[in-house]
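Let us practice reading a record.
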Amino acid sequence: MFNDIGPLELVTIVVIAVLVFGPDKLPKMIQDVARTIRKIREFSESAKQDIRNELGPEFKDFEFEDLNPKTFIRKQLENDDLGLKEIRNGFDLKKEMAEVTDAVHSRESESSTSSPASSGPTGGTVDMTKKPTSTDPDERPPFDADAT
């Protein structure tokens, strides 16, 4: 319950409790807190037992800890009926990203070194690989969603 409280924090809590409640009232306060925690646990366990009884025998393996999403996923991945471990082991993200990066860099280097271009009348370069545009007035220009 208090797994993340260190010894220094525990000493600090005790000192503050002694200062607030006083040394004569502190034992009674500790007993009251312990009794309250015990009653809460008993109430919780009885509620869990009632729910298990109401669910019936088909849910006899039901655990309330399985309702935590992390626990549920961990438990389902341990079963591995779908072969997820094979898929996960067969997929290397670094390798895939390296292949994509190499493909992109090779396309960039090919387009920059081997694109046929000729000098236009204004002195600039004209890409001859582009398809000429239609002069039909009824034809709509291509739509570029990224440009808008």
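A brief commentary: The helical segments are 7-21, 26-55, 69-79, 84-90, 93-113.
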